[in-house]
């Protein structure tokens, strides 16, 4: 034991020496203190990852195992999160681990409080699904507890794992499918959300959508519309798009849950889907198959995302410190809502 | 302090003396041991409730507060549970409490393991939503931790609170509405589940359905059909009902989630709703309002149930020991799926 490198023997001093900075500077990064430069943060994080350093609280948590992992969900109203949880449950089925879920209601303040509660209790590790917190807060969380993120694109991250759909490709598949079914004026109904580093799934889908439109030489009358999460905001945006003089030929929605609202608004306005307007969702949740929806969607296998995240988390809990970034390849599932017009 | 009655001064001996039984007998009830008679259990539970006794583990949990409450949900796929969680979140908003959710996937073994994990951690209290566990396990849970049950009818319970919809009345409202819209051959698509004491919402709705059919002098060709939770089982049951030579004029479904599947099967079979068959759900979830569903349903206000459960739980955590049994009065929300036939 005395000669082997263990995480317990790595201290804040070792990290400071490795990074060539002061102990106070490392401490500032760990506390996520105000005024830490991006460059300092990157240097310290690189050393932390290389040395496998964990601050004391997290080390204590790892020693006193609770056999519980925490899962942070933004919103259980979106049925896609059920698919993710099914995957998490499958992965944990034959292990000693159980999951407890915190629901943030898409509010950053609740999210941060829940993550604190989960790391303080402590839990053995965390799966954060599409968190709203900024990158620095993710770092601090990952330093306190083994952490895997789903739906957060940061492929260079060294302190935590990520599990993602290739969201750019997913959006490209939608545009190509709609072009192949004879539509060219294609709008994207996305989410109103702050995301300076393009880590979120909607930002990635916007990039994919724009790239595919450009590749096909298309420019939509209305390209990207962003609406808040609520049913009221979604329906208002859909109504504006569908009642406008230049109604798009197709509306690609960032998630099925939004597409179901668009189908409803179209019906209320007396429009026929897919004749008057095609509608496409994302996530391929169970609602797509219901005959009254018959909704074309992109399958990113929430089950696989959840399963893979739980597997990676258990590896991290058991000691892996090198980062893994797992990406699922999405596929388009065509249904009646985007059939070619007759 | 020395003269006041406190829960700390009540011991297993005090309980045994009060109940007129041995300490070993009380211990057996607390451990939920095999071979405890219903009569012995009732005597001990009455004394426990009267004296406000809490076993040591629960008392310890109450002293070392974690400011966390555990919520057990059967299944986040049913959108009704989102409404309940919204209510829980509303109640906790201005308190120091946070909730962590365990999802049992409708499996008893997972449910019991989660409840153990939640009481061992410990949490300050538990909300169990429609648990599958038998009454004796609920008792043991309530002895370990302040507990409130939603969707579990046991109005005589002394050790825990309950929050329920008047499910019998809800089912009666549906039958009366369907009769008023001209239907008499009304089937009830209920849930396949073991419930010897009629504590579950589906048992209560079956009782209400039967009573209302009898009151109206009606007997359906097919009265109660019970199906498993899965989409496959639900759709198979719906298909059998709708394809039978004696197709019911109306199908009342125990939850909206099932009614959406029935709408889908009807459409696939080329049947028109409400002309060929009326469909009614229960829970009045957000999906009912979508134009492609336009589903009549019973509103039991999941938000109110969750809110009230969290309020009662906080009272219990703060020391209340007398039981409260809160009942919501449901109301029917009529939509297109049960319009009178033209």
UniProtKB/TrEMBL annotation, chains A, B:
Keywords: DNA-binding, Transcription, Transcription regulation. The keyword Repressor does not apply. Residues 10-64 form the HTH lacI-type domain. Pfam families: LacI (PF00356), Peripla_BP_3 (PF13377). Signal peptide: none annotated. PANTHER family: LACI-RELATED TRANSCRIPTIONAL REPRESSOR, TRANSCRIPTIONAL REGULATORY PROTEIN. This is LacI family transcriptional regulator. The gene is lacI.
């Amino acid at each position: 034991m005395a000669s082997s490198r263990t995480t317990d023997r790595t201290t804040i001093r070792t990290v400071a020496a490795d990074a060539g900075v002061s102990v106070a500077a490392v401490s500032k990064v760990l506390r996520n203190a105000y005024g830490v430069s991006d460059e300092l943060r990157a240097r310290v994080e690189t050393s932390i990852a290389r040395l496998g350093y964990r601050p004391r609280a997290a080390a204590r948590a790892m020693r006193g195992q609770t056999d519980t992992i925490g899962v942070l969900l933004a919103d259980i109203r979106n049925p896609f999160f059920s698919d993710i949880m099914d995957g998490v449950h499958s992965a944990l089925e034959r292990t000693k681990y159980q999951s407890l879920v915190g629901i943030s209601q898409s509010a950053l303040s609740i999210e941060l409080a829940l993550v604190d509660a989960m790391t303080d209790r402590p839990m053995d590790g965390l799966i954060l699904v599409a968190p709203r917190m900024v990158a620095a807060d993710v770092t601090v969380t990952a330093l306190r507890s083994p952490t895997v993120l789903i739906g957060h694109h940061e492929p260079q991250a060294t302190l935590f794992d990520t599990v993602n759909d290739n969201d750019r490709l997913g959006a490209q598949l939608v545009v190509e499918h709609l072009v192949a079914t004879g539509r060219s004026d294609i709008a994207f109904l996305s989410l109103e959300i702050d995301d300076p580093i393009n880590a979120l799934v909607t930002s990635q889908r916007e990039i994919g959508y724009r790239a595919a439109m450009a590749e096909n030489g298309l420019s939509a009358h209305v390209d990207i519309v962003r609406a808040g999460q609520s049913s009221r905001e979604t329906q208002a945006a859909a109504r504006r798009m569908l009642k406008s003089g230049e109604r798009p030929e197709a509306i690609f929605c960032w998630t099925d849950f939004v597409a179901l609202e668009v189908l409803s608004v179209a019906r209320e306005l007396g429009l026929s889907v897919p004749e008057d307007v095609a509608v496409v969702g994302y996530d391929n949740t169970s609602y797509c198959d219901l005959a009254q929806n018959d909704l074309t969607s992109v399958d990113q296998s929430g089950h696989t995302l959840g399963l893979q995240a739980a597997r990676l988390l258990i590896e991290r809990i058991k000691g892996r410190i090198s980062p893994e970034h797992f990406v699922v390849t999405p596929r388009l599932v065509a249904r009646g809502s985007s059939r070619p017009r007759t």
